[in-house]
Amino acid sequence: MNKYLLSIKLILILCLSLQAQTSDIQIKVLTEAENEPLLGATVYFEALEKGAVTDFDGIATFTEIPDGQHQIIISFLGFETFETTIQIPSNTALIFKLKEGGNQLDAVVLQSSRSTRTVRKIPTRIEFIGAEELGEKAIMNPTNISMVLRESTGIQMQQTSLSSGSTNIRIQGLDGRYTQLLRDGFPLYGGFSSGLSILQIPPLDLQQFEIIKGSSSTLYGGGAIAGLINMVSKTPDFEPALDIMLTQTQALGSTANVFYSKRNEKFGFSLYGSGHYQKAYDPEDDGFSNLPKTTSISFNPKLFYYPSENTTVWFGLNGTYDDRIGGDINKIENGEDGIHQYTEENNSKRLSSQLVYQTQLDSTSSLEFKNSVSFFDRNLTVPDFNFDGKQTNTFTEISYNTASENTDWIVGANLYTSNFDENDNAPLQRDQKDVTFGAFANNIYDISDNWILETGLRADYNTDFGFFPLPRISLLYKNNSGFSSRIGGGLGYKIPDIFTEEAEYINFENVLGINKSTVDAERSYGVNFDLNYQTRLSDEIGFSINQLFYVTAINDGLLLNSTDNGLFQFENAPDEIFSKGAETNIKFTYKDFRWFLNYALIDTKLNYLPGNPQKPLTAKHNAGSVLMYESEKWRIGYETFYTGKQFLSNGTETTDFVTMGLLVMRNFKLGSVFVNFENFTDRRQSRFSPLVLPPHDNPVFPEIYAPTDGFIFSVGLIIKPFGNEDHD
């Protein structure tokens, strides 16, 4: 009898063991027409109530799926929903294709366009950087987003200070103040933070970048003359996510990033923390730092509430403490001594809040309310001068979206305030307050299956500078053979303030405040035209090409001119800043290989100067090549970038140069290890011309036109305890 009981127990244990077997799987989703990976598609196990969203490669990853048959639903906005049954484990790859034609209106695909449409059906040209590419750039530079932006076609990262490393972004040859930086649709950066903003945005908690080049003021107001960059944060899922990244460079820079998120039916949260320490680094051994001594800490918690399936409320905080000191190495390490006197110290604190309420009113319309308050405190100290102040910005907006079979509408209104308060002890009081009210409407209309028209109008009123009407129009043609073309244009404007690249270069010393009675707002007009084609050259080889042409002109450009008493004052330029050019992007794919080629022609003329010279520190010719190999176990990338000759402000022509980089990463079940060789040919400006000119106790810093830090070697570890497959 005992033998029978023992046999029954063993059989039950075996059955339970078999029943408990689970698998980790990947499901890949492609478009049926182009056979391209579909980013953002939802794959849902109905019985298990488990879902995931596909990544940049069209892959949705699941862990602990019970073996057996499962019903799955695959859906994506603008595509027909697909239902099927799969067997787990499977002897074949789980690859499915979606057909265009669905008209579901339950999710916003791209925040920068505020549309429920896919990229392919939006007339406005939007460049997209997904999670995979963001992950690669985060490995190359885990401290900030400069690497992500620098390697995008037509975007230049212009360093304005050797001592602090301050860096501004330039799109299509135009100064950084003409580009609007957004985070989840909020204008949190710019103004007083100026060149420090890029250095204070770590990339690990971001899931995608959306870039619009050319005037984008209709939906986002003034400041988006050259374009806008919207950084979209990661959001919590039912599956917990934990990412830990630790990086060390040979230049004595140490960085730690931690991101964790989780949600249930009603609540979700995400926590992000980042810490970075950099010792002052002097690769030339000339006694002055090329990388400042830096201590930076960031913290970003978010709380999500889901009162119903149709409503989401979330609240987030962004906090950053950043202290950087550069200049004379001896003074940094040992204190002031004789001729060792020059340092530049930037101490800054940032705190911002974001509140969002989103609700789906019915199957075709939604309502959104958002508010942010941003506080930035900065103290800049150089010998015999201190610039100290605080800036508080607020942004409030309400918008309504509705869509039908052939048309989408968004209408809304917003209020933007900016208040800069300089320390009361400053000899030049440059306080400035601005209040801007805005209302906007945007429409996307399907003229036919091949033609789509987008029109928009914004009306802004600034209490000091008056009324700004901002129309915009874009037209898209697409067909089923992989060809599409867009043409669009619009107007823009920029409220003047003292935070320009020219003023930052001289540390705002002796710079007079904006005289609102004599200085006008800057105004712009621009047109973009692009051609796009993608196809399969064979079953294994994919090819795509995008060709862009653009023109942007700025009237009443803000200039910083000297006065007779040794001060500097802002005036409007008597003629245009005129930028025109072209961008070419080519992509090849073959099995696990991807090859990207790009070229940018940037011809920015200062028509207000005799001879209409090229804008200083703007290379007319730029090119790049990125070759990537990606498998389950390995990720290897080799990059080459060419920067053409530039002109300095005094008319001197610089040399051109080439930089190269190599990334090697090995994936394991619980994460990855990587090594990165950035600029391994050690191209830096000091090899072409001096970075520092005498006297030592009061040095002169020439303009920066090439990398200053040279070769950087880094090693790192990424720990991902959840949702990974064994790659051993």
From TrEMBL:
Signal peptide residue numbers: 1-20
Gene3D superfamilies, sorted: Carboxypeptidase-like, regulatory domain, TonB-dependent receptor, beta-barrel domain, TonB-dependent receptor, plug domain
Name of a matching Pfam family: Plug
Record domain TonB-dependent receptor-like beta-barrel: where: 297-679
Any single biological process term in GO: siderophore transmembrane transport
Top-rank lineage group of the source organism: Bacteria
Transmembrane segments: none
GO cellular component: cell outer membrane
Keywords per UniProt: Cell outer membrane, Membrane, Receptor, Signal, TonB box, Transmembrane, Transmembrane beta strand, Transport
Molecular-function GO term, any one: siderophore uptake transmembrane transporter activity
Membrane topology: Multi-pass membrane protein
Localization in the cell: Cell outer membrane
TonB-dependent receptor plug domain location: 119-227
InterPro entries noted in UniProt: Beta-barrel_TonB, Beta-barrel_TonB_sf, CarboxyPept-like_regulatory, Plug_dom, Plug_dom_sf, TonB-dep_rcpt-like
Family: Belongs to the TonB-dependent receptor family.
Name this protein carries in UniProt: TonB-dependent receptor
Organism of provenance: Dokdonia donghaensis DSW-1
